[in-house]
Amino acid sequence: MFIRIFSIIPSDFKAHCACEHMFIQRKTGINMNVSEFKKNGHMIIDWIANYFENIEKYPVKSKSSPGEVISKLPARAPEKAEKFEKIFGDFEKIIMPGITHWQSPSFFAYFPANNSFASILGELLASALGAQCMSWATSPAAAELEEAVMKQLAKIIGLPESFCGVIEDTASTSTLCAALSAREKYSDYAINSEGFGPENKFTAYCSGQAHSSIEKAVKIAGIGKNRLRLIGCDKNYAMIPSEFESAVKKDIKAGYRPVFAVAAIGTTGSTAIDPLREIGKICKKYKIWLHVDAAYAGSALVLPEMRYMIDGIEYADSFVFNPHKWLFTNFDCSAYFVRDKGALIKTFEILPEYLKTSEKSAVNNYRDWGIQLGRRFRSLKLWFVLRSFGVSGLRRIIKKHIELAQYFAEMLAAEKGFEIMAPHPLSVVCFRYKPHKNLSREKTDAFNADLLEKLNSSGKLYLSHTRLCGDFVIRMAIGQTGTEKKHVKSALNMIINTAKNMSK
């Protein structure tokens, strides 16, 4: 009806309406029209392309001092709209000097958080659409693409068909979801309804090398930090199954109920691999929810030869890895898989009237698969990555990173004074330099802390550290999308020369 009426309105009035509409847009704060958006958008894309072409010219680690950036920012937002050129100019002048360049091929700190052009473009489209992907009804394509992509991803990394997946923001959130699901399953879903009672004396387990997110998860889930048992590790920093079972037996005898255990596939410090099969058998025996944290190492499962790491995965209740770490998908994107989606949904489902839809039984409403109601269209960028690289492309680059790490370790170990401090099955190498054979632990630690600071302050590379058996060690994490052998060689030479010059 509206179309028919509008069709008989004089053309000059239509033109007036169009102009008025543009005027209203500007008055309501939309101060960029389509042509300006195109112009600025092209400029941004050009800037991004130039950034990646010239990224090696930037100091890898920001040289900003505390408070330096905020001192250059006004205390109040502008009352009147500002030109985009001015905004972008301030981005370059104020923000860029305070950025640590995670995409630099010489970024070797922490774990990688790599991305790719395909992922960036997918993220751009998702941002443009601005879809709210909380349910199938609010974005059918988003829900069904997420389902399809997660099925593809499970096959790529070798998970059993019994697992189904959902995209969360981070592994921390995924691990919390697992802890909450374990809590509810083993309380017969009573805690969600009634809260904790004196009978809910739950305990949780992980190795002393596991990620800090596990401690945070058991705190938030109400299990309690003091009821998280840190299990001892062997010489390779992997959990000792016999000690795990002993801790479980001790807790049962003391009147506790073991409900949650985490096996790490690639620990944060050294990338140790917990013996999944042995841990899984214990969890099955005592009816404990087994969560597998493969946040970093899970990407390596695209290589069939690396799937020994998940031998025993059939015992797991849940599994997580982050494509935003080592699968060329920009942050954030965490792939969380569960064996029993019913337990997951029962833990989180809340259905007020305004969220009810007629399609519920036939679709996945991912708002019920985790903590958040609102959800971003994360599957789009992951889909772009999988298709742009292909499985063979993903395998080629990840295999190259692992080979570069082995090369780095071999070359460094051949140098007098350097020690490789842990096994390195993936792309992280832990090492230290001991200038003199009889140097005390304290002085060796201090030397390596100084060495790390000197290397990082150069701006030519960025490394991080951990402690293994109390020793301060430096971590070399290879995994940025653009990292090649020349970058590893350059880092190797700089590490060796700096250490030897400092010891003179």
The poorly predicted ranges are 1-9, 13-29
| Alpha-beta classification | alpha/beta
Helical fraction equals 40-55%
What is the residue-averaged pLDDT? 90
| CATH structural architecture of the largest domain | 3-Layer(aba) Sandwich
CATH class category label of the largest domain: Alpha Beta
Structure description:
This protein is an alpha/beta fold. It folds into 2 domains: 136-376, Type I PLP-dependent aspartate aminotransferase-like (Major domain) (Aspartate Aminotransferase, domain 2, 3-Layer(aba) Sandwich); 386-502, Aspartate Aminotransferase, domain 1, CATH 3.90.1150. It is built from 16 helices and 11 strands. It has helices spanning 2-7, 11-27, 34-53, 84-95, 117-129, 140-157, 171-185, 191-194, 212-220, 241-253, 276-286, 323-326, 341-348, 379-413, 441-457, 485-502; strands at residues 164-168, 202-207, 228-231, 257-264, 289-293, 318-321, 334-338, 418-420, 428-433, 464-468, 471-477. The protein has a 7-stranded mixed sheet with strand order 1-7-6-5-4-2-3, sandwiched between helices. The longest helix has 35 residues, at 379-413. The radius of gyration is 26 Å and the shape is globular. The model is unreliable at 1-9 and 13-29 (pLDDT under 50).
Short account of what is shown:
The chain is α/β, with parallel strands linked by helices and 504 residues long.
